[in-house]
Amino acid sequence: MDPLNLQEYEAVAREVLRPMAFDYIAGGADDEATVTANREAFARRHLRYRTLVDVSERDLSTHLLGIDLPHPIILAPTAMHQLAHPEGEAETARGAAAAGALLTLSTISTVSLEDVAAAAPDAPRWFQLYCYGDRSFTELLVKRAYESGYQAIVVTVDVPVLGRRERDLRNSFALPDGMRLANFEQPVPRPEGGSALVQWTTAIQTPALTWEDLGWIRSLAPLPTLIKGIVRADDALRAVEAGIDGIWVSNHGGRQLDGAIPSLDALPEIVDAVGEQCAIIVDGGVRRGTDVLKALALGADGVAIGRPQLYALAVAGADGVRRVVELLRDELSLAMALAGCPSLAEVERDLVR
Ligand code: FNR
Ligand code: LAC
Question: Which residue's CA lies nearest to atom 2 of ligand 2?
Fold first, then answer.
């Protein structure tokens, strides 16, 4: 029988993925406490459903930064999809397109941003940007994304340096032979012990990015800009004052600062601070339609999944990616029916306690 939910996709993926690949995807920083805390934040919240509402029809459609979407479930940027499938991010893009899910492509993809765009040319897509010490290369990346039809730039700001992933250290994580970061010319060197990703990030990513650089980043293309990795209202306010169009509330799936506040717990204060002025995305531990409903009720406009897309890709390629989005979408629709919410407009904060 096909996996019935996102957790069952993880269980099957554990069997089909090489241990180093599974550990890289599943892993988090240090004790992985925030990986667990992200899930627990959803479990701690309960739904106060309404009754006697006509829910014979449910409308899950939404609008995100100029894009009409059939539902608010989006794919978070995740690196190196060829670890899970030989077609990598192109296969993911086909699955996302089939499920009507907006795809956010990582800078460190194993299929070039141009080839991912070509795999699903009419599908909604954003480009996630890591800023590099070489500013001209960063500018070129954004220019390439704009010219390839990416509809927003998502600047990730919670990786000034890479978190300490002990699974990767134990496995001496490296890209398998023949695999490369396709948006770059230079190969990722094989580490002499330790994680190749730490060495790559240390070598070319910049820990010196500051608020003063946002103006430069926004000037690189006439696209909406989102900031990903925000967990504080004061940072969100500062971003909006700097002209940012969207806040992506995230602790990187617990892969960066272990002990970070769970994304769902960070969400309400950020919504109160800037929810009326910009789009709000949240990710971290979303595995059920009821999780999506809770995140929407607490003020998110879009709810993103990270690890599940890779597990599904490993298990069944594009069909797997399509399936996990559809599973989540259908679970959300059912949850909305049972909560007395025929559309997203009725999904408000008092639904959750
Ligand atoms: C990520 N994430 C991430 N984020 C980002 O901005 N750029 C990236 O390249 C990556 N790469 C990446 C790889 C893998 C294997 C994972 C699991 C995660 C973080 C990702 O966008 C998202 O914030 C979390 O994955 C969300 O949590 P869940 O859904 O994985 O629990
Ligand atoms: C990670 C980086 C690549 O979480 O974002 O693995």
Answer: 79
**DSSP SS3 for 259:** coil
Query: What six digits make up the tokens of 96?
Result: 């996302």
Confidence of residue 259 (pLDDT cuts 50, 70, 90): very high
Range among 171-175, 176-180, 334-338 rated most confident: 334-338
Locate the ligand 2 atom nearest the alpha carbon of residue 252 and give its number. 4
Q: How far is the CA of 74 from the centre of ligand 1 (A)?
A: 12
What the block records as the tokens of 157 is: 């700001």
Contact 279, 257 (CB under 8 A): no
The string of pLDDT tens digits covering residues 175-199 is 998 899 999 988 888 877 789 888 8
Q: How far apart are CA 77 and CA 107, in angstroms?
A: 8
* Mutate which of 307, 324, 325 for ligand 1 pocket (most atoms within 8 A of beta carbon): 307
Report the C-alpha gap between 51 and 36 in whole angstroms.
33
Q: Is the pLDDT of residue 133 over 80?
A: yes
Kindly report the number of other CB atoms within 10 A of residue 334's CB atom. 15
Q: What is the pLDDT of residue 194?
A: 85
Non-local (6+) Cβ contacts of 46 within 8 A are 352, 353
Using DSSP's 3-state secondary structure scheme, residue 274 falls into helix
Residue 62 CA to ligand 1 centre (angstroms): 23
Q: How many Cβ atoms sit within 10 Å of the Cβ of residue 264? A: 27
Q: According to the 3-state scheme, what is the secondary structure of 12-63?
A: HHHHHCCHHHHHHHHCCCCCCHHHHHHHHHHHCCCECCCCCCCCCCCECCEE
Could you give phi then psi for residue 69, rounded to 5 degrees? -125, 145
What single-letter amino acid sits at 127? F
Checking if the pLDDT of 25 tops 80, the result is: yes
The sign of the CA dihedral 197, 109, 154, 280 is: negative
DSSP character at residue 351: G
Euclidean distance between CA atoms 12 and 2, whole angstroms: 10
